[in-house]
Write a structure and sequence with these properties.
Elements: E1 2-3, H1 13-16, H2 24-30, E2 35-40, E3 44-48, E4 58-62, H3 74-95, E5 99-103, E6 117-122, H4 141-157
Length: 166
């Protein structure tokens, strides 16, 4: 379904709130910019990426504007990722993909500042090699332990209503 104009299938501006000025995804959610929509409900909108890695490369966005995953209210994380899970299954079942790649950029490499999750159909020998960047190790166990400790401190300092992580 292509969505444009009144927002048929993608919601109306009243359902999602006013679009954030200049946000391409808010314009799609509001129905004022076209998109090939594959999922539309009260929480989220999923549509084909206009520059796909492969046919079926889909973006899922919350209807409400939030710039990054960290900005997303805890109550929307589960609903968003429930839809991500469903779409990852759909690209396999509907497109015959062997699997999928799911990714969410925060600021760096985030071309549109509206949180979105990529679901990309994958097949063996499709030309993508694991992660798209070179991997590097830690200097030693001490460096790995220090990085882990810094992350644990940052997690314990968060106060977003979620239970502490192990």
């Amino acid at each position: 379904m292509t969505v444009a104009g009144t927002g048929t299938g993608a919601g109306t501006p009243d359902e999602a709130g006013p679009p954030r000025e200049g946000c391409a995804f808010c314009r799609i959610v509001a129905g004022v910019a076209p998109a090939q929509v594959v999922l539309a409900d009260e929480c989220c909108l999923a549509f084909l990426d206009v520059r796909p890695l492969f046919p079926g490369h889909t973006l899922i966005v919350p209807r409400e504007h939030h710039e990054t995953l960290g900005d997303l209210p805890p109550g929307l994380v589960g609903p968003l990722f429930t839809r991500v899970r469903r779409l990852s299954q759909a690209v396999e079942e509907g497109l015959g993909a062997a699997g999928s790649f799911v990714a969410c950029n925060n600021r760096v490499s985030q071309s549109v500042p509206h949180v979105h999750v990529h679901v990309v159909p994958r097949n063996r020998k499709d030309g993508l090699r694991g992660f798209f960047w070179p991997r590097q190790g830690y200097e030693d166990e001490a460096q790995a332990a220090e990085v882990a400790a810094r992350l644990r401190r940052a997690l314990s300092a968060q106060h977003d209503g979620e239970a502490a992580l192990g």
